[in-house]
Amino acid sequence: MGSLEGKVAIVTGGGTGIGKCIAKAFAEQGCNLVIAARNLDRLESAADELRKIPGAGKIIVSAVDVTNEQQVIDLFALTMREFSKLDILVNNSGAFDGGPIEKLTLEQWERVMGVNVTGPFLCTREAFKIMSPAGGGRIINIGSIAAQRPREQSIPYSTSKNAVWGLTTASALEGRPLGISVGCLHPGNVAVERRADGRSATGRDMGPEPLVSTEDMGRTALLMATLPPETNMLEAIVLPVAQTYLGRG
Questions:
Q1: pTM summary value
Q2: Which residues in 124-140 are b (16+ Cβ under 10 Å) and which e?
Q3: Residues with a known catalytic role
Q4: Edge-to-edge order in the sheet of strand 180-187
Q5: Domain edges within the chain
Q6: Has domain 8-238 been given CATH number 3.50.50.60?
Q7: Which tens digit of pLDDT belongs to each residue from 153-195?
Q8: Degrees, nearest 5: CA angle 32-37-39
Q9: Mean predicted lDDT score pLDDT of the chain
Q10: Which one of 8, 50, 226, 238 is at 20 to 30 Å from 27 when CA atoms are compared?
Q11: Nearest CA to 35 among 84, 88, 113?
């Protein structure tokens, strides 16, 4: 029996990268999953892979733009129709952009802030509506070390991830008397699709850098998700040993 047998989780940005690996780690432990993202083809491909995992729970997909309030509301309504409960939310959908501040456009800023901040807010709000009367649940936000150690030319992304950390701590406080735990996983450099060459997609390119795998993020998210309900991992930082983080800046 898997450690998430019978549990229900929503993973946004679940069709690729970190989100897909988190969904895989959960599916391997018997979790029922709703994976959501804008690209339905990628979601369907990911779901086909997840359904082949021995012992995986039910896997459904939902094409969702997390910046669209009605689409987010519909995502949570779909989850309740299918499963009648929600145990875990992983806010993973993300947007990347940067460059010298004098060249940044308002469109770039609003796109990153919309996906990285408004999206997690909307999903967290809807999760609270379900988890509070149920007596609890767990929310895992995917932040970034950029919230603490920004790289150059990453103002939209770094600012958004600072906001994700603020959302985490404020909603953890609000969820505490309701039995809802909220934590934040801060990845360092991760070998996702957009970084196949080891170079930055979030700020000034500093050349190839050491990377950790998406599977490392999946394992860490699984650890956070399977802690006892009275225990919360408020913050986790996972990065390559060789990455310039401590002592940089």
A1: 0.94
A2: bebbbebbbeeeebbbb
A3: 157
A4: 59-63, 32-37, 8-12, 88-91, 137-142, 180-187, 235-238
A5: 8-238
A6: no
A7: 899 999 999 999 999 999 999 999 999 999 999 999 888 744 5
A8: 120
A9: 93
A10: 238
A11: 88
